[in-house]
Design brief:
227 residues, alpha+beta, CRO Repressor, 4-stranded antiparallel sheet, DUF421 domain-containing protein
Length: 227
């Protein structure tokens, strides 16, 4: 029974310390957390968990460690409010991923961000063509902020009884230099056709292609390492 009482008291002590410093450090929505915030939260939570159940760890030392980590976090938050260079160093900075419908490969590589992630986040925003995007920025929290081209935001075509171009999803043909043969079968095309399309775009090396996709209007969209 004493063991359970001790466990209860340890858990209450660490809970109260966590609650106190969570309130002091302020609140953010989960969607606003940066990777730095996430790592800090996971570390402090791990310390609290160990301090509450591990008898080999002194509960007061565990709580003291939580306090130190929390105070350091508060100190860094105060400093970064006034020092933008340090804030960018800790939280990273937004990266321009698409500019005027062109993917910026060097920024994607810098962010360890692949074309599959980009296409997925665009689809979540109901955007199925990279060429519809004026600007896309990868935020420090991993979210993608997108500004569509002005002409793509208008909905006057239907009102003016103008025939719209054929709509549909882009079919992925090449990913990181590899031809997706199953996708080619779906559109009844072969490797020779793909290579010919690359040549028409002045792309002669398959390994230089990060992404290539067939749009519903029949146009090929290509992202190369040189973009």
């Amino acid at each position: 029974m004493n063991n359970y009482l001790i466990l209860f008291l340890r858990s209450v002590a660490t809970y109260l310390v966590m609650l106190l410093f969570t309130r002091i450090m302020g609140r953010k929505q989960l969607s606003q957390l940066t990777y730095f915030d996430y790592v800090l939260g996971a570390t402090i939570g791990s310390i609290a968990a160990v301090a509450s159940v591990d008898k080999n760890v002194n509960v007061f030392e565990g709580c003291f460690s939580i306090i130190i980590w929390s105070l350091i976090t508060l100190l860094i938050s105060e400093i970064t409010l006034k020092n933008i260079k340090l804030r960018l160093l800790i939280n990273s900075e937004p990266l321009l991923i698409i500019n005027n419908g062109k993917v910026i490969s060097k920024n994607m590589k810098k962010a360890k961000y692949n074309i599959g992630d980009l296409l997925m986040q665009l689809r979540v925003k109901d955007i199925f063509y990279i060429t519809d995007v004026e600007i896309a920025i990868l935020e420090p929290d991993g979210k993608l902020s997108v500004l569509k081209k002005a002409e793509k935001n208008t909905v006057t075509a239907e009102d003016m009884h103008i025939q719209k171009p054929k709509s549909g999803m882009m079919v992925e043909l090449i990913l990181d230099g590899n031809i997706l043969y199953t996708h080619l079968e779906q559109i009844q095309k072969n490797e020779e056709w793909v290579l010919e399309q690359l040549k028409l775009k002045n792309v002669h090396n398959l390994e230089d292609v990060i992404f290539a996709g067939l749009q519903a209007d029949g146009q090929i969209y290509i992202v190369t390492k040189n973009d």
